[in-house]
Design brief:
alpha+beta, Rossmann fold, Dna Ligase, domain 1, D-amino Acid Aminotransferase, Chain A, domain 1, four-stranded parallel sheet, four-stranded antiparallel sheet, 14 helices, about 25% strand
Amino acid sequence: MARASGAAAHRPRVLLIAPHSSYRISAYYQAAAGLGIDLVVASQGEHSLIPEIASGIHVDLEAPKEALEIIVEQAKREAFQAVIASDDVTVELASHVARRLGLAHNPPSAARTARRKDLARNALARAGLPVPPFRRVDLGAPLEPQLAGLEYPQVVKPLALSASRGVIRADNPAEVVAACRRIAALVTRLPDPEERRYVLVEGFIPGAEYALEGMLEDGALHVLAVFDKPDPLMGPFFEETYYVTPSRLAPSSQVAVARRVSDACRAYGLRQGPVHAEVRSAWGEFWVLEIAARTIGGDCARLLSFGTGRSLEELVLRQAVGERIQITPPSGAAGVLMIPVPGAGVLRRVEGVMAARKVPGIEDVVIAVREGYELVPLPEGGSYLGFLFALEKSPQAVERALREAHACLNFVLAPVWRIEPAATHDG
């Protein structure tokens, strides 16, 4: 066998563990190519049409123990310098792989806590951080006795789904019961039996919501951005829409957000890599809704490259291979609208895209869903129609541009016709 060239031999080799449908695979590959990093994807899809997946390591992400052994065996043949998880469903596996390979990682228990809403609430409570009253409800037992003593409104959540799937506000006992039954139908195919059996019920936290994107380095939090979410998220469902940065919060409040997120990361046990946090301001406190041990979802990571010249994936990869994180403050303001699903139906066409592109300040309009695709709104659905990106001089101007561009769009839907088998009658 021919010996690798000197340049190739010194290229860092990084493993990305990702679902085959992840938005982030392409972005990580692009960043890796620019940094001279060999990126290998571990995913489902031996016969995938995506070359990076087809040529990578093929594992079943729903069988994590078997996937772990397959990856470790591959690493014996050619070592990795780092392991990265792309999405919530891969953070635990990535932490186990990194631990087995002796690489920098979050403890598997911390990765699990970040993914599981019930464990996260327990960790925050043990650390003395503010959490709403919460309880775990067994879907397999009578519901009414488990709901005794609740004060309303409440929020009912699956233990582990992301993108606000299954998160439902309930204003009375009947609505809690209805929400539990609705979530039960949603989680029935999850591989983890606990996540099929239980839901989290917790007190509703009113107030404005914010997001923080950061990087942990040996436990220290480096803040990349704080985002405003200017749309009120009051329920009954919690579809995220607008993200705008820099935040219009007072500097002292942004420091308080960062401190609260840092304390929560410590409570979870997180120490290394990207984190995406959601917090609410209520009753004079910042309350952690959740912290994910991965980057911001969907295409939203592009926000971090506006004005800085560096993508979020580049920062993650640089840290993973041992480089110091260098953060350049962005110039101006940036924002994204995750285009919400307007209703249930089959997408026929999207009108007004050219008009939206012409709105001053709009950088890009991405329609991610093709015609003929069945749209499923929250709480059962978990995807967006696409993304609007804006770059302006101020957060106020960014928000105006996004709202104006969104108003240009019209989504034409057709009803979904389902063919049910005819009833038969025995004579």
